[in-house]
Predict the structure.
Amino acid sequence: MMGDQHIASAFDRDLEAIQALVMKMGGLVEEAIRTGSKSLKSRDVELAEQVRKGDRKIDELEEQINTQCATVLALRQPAARDLRTVLSVMKIAGNLERIGDYSKNIAKRTEVLVHMQPIEGTSSALKRMSREVEAMLADALDAFMRRDPVAADEIRHRDLDVDQMYNALFREFLTFMMEDPRNISACMHLHFIAKNIERMGDHVTSIADQVIYLATGEMPEDQRPKSNTEIYQIEGGDGTDEADE
Amino acid sequence: MMGDQHIASAFDRDLEAIQALVMKMGGLVEEAIRTGSKSLKSRDVELAEQVRKGDRKIDELEEQINTQCATVLALRQPAARDLRTVLSVMKIAGNLERIGDYSKNIAKRTEVLVHMQPIEGTSSALKRMSREVEAMLADALDAFMRRDPVAADEIRHRDLDVDQMYNALFREFLTFMMEDPRNISACMHLHFIAKNIERMGDHVTSIADQVIYLATGEMPEDQRPKSNTEIYQIEGGDGTDEADE
């Protein structure tokens, strides 16, 4: 019995260290979202470059987390529940890494957009959207640390608002493009930025799913609430892709 | 020694069974790419629906692979190299699942596009592009089974052609949109389809990276060859996002 206890607490210590890395990574990703959105709004190339370069640190943290998880698997050989926990943590790190990549993409497009005519009003709408995703991420990481399935479930529903913001923006971009062909190039980039933010929301939702799994042992039944099926069919609505869920 | 041998071969048997599932999954994903591209070209809603519905089977296979991998980790407690192999296989299954999702997205957009005026020539270009990605995937799975790092490295370089096809299409779409605003809506969807295919190529590249890792114990130094940095800066070129690498 003593032996068992010892093994269990060694695993717990390892897991705690890994979770600390996840939180550190999450903090950097939150900052990337915030700084990326700010650089877009203020057309600040230096800020954008900062986000682009900062992504390397995020990637490194993911690698570190994966290495430590592999070490824990090999050394502690956790069974059942503990094994699931390690695999979940790796998935969450993967989601964070991809959100970081989206921020980097937004920064790259910002660097292109500063050379084009600004499109009235759209960067404020994009900022609102990314602020919501950033808040969702902060809450998801909080729910992760507390293993709180109720908070996680709430986040999943908030993603529907993000999807709606995206759909509204998609229609707006179409209008701008039709009004004046000179807007087309900029709108294509802005549209991709909107899509990237929408996908960040999907990844935050996946993190929330993992939190529910960690807390209850089961994935949420519907995986995630969907609002997209109908919107997809409406001319002018773009719907929500699922490639990144 | 006998005991060791026994454990190793039990692991090998388990791994073989999992690899068979990966190959089955890969076959379905190849078919999804092929059928999706065909439905787009022939504006065939029934075929598109078939792709959409078929994605469920692909998702189920990924879940099955993950479950079996978790079981192997718990039961066989593989160390070092074997552990890395299991984690790599899980990553490859993840890449396949996402390629399947992109096919599903393309099918969804096809169902919207049939209600719009076709854009001359673009569906042939998209078909060429997706045929290349499909061939790359077939070769990547083959390289995976043979643990062939040379074949895998060749695939990574072919992805540059896919990126170039995407960039050419991006410019074409811009031209069509500027020529006639009535093309805008359809071009936005076609552009996303092109982007989805380009991202499929990135996932095939990730599979090739894993094959190199499995065969040599090291990830390719540059992770992947890049051609995008300059193109990104050219007005009219869209560059290559990295969110899905």
Q: What stands out?
A: The radius of gyration of chain B is 20 Å.
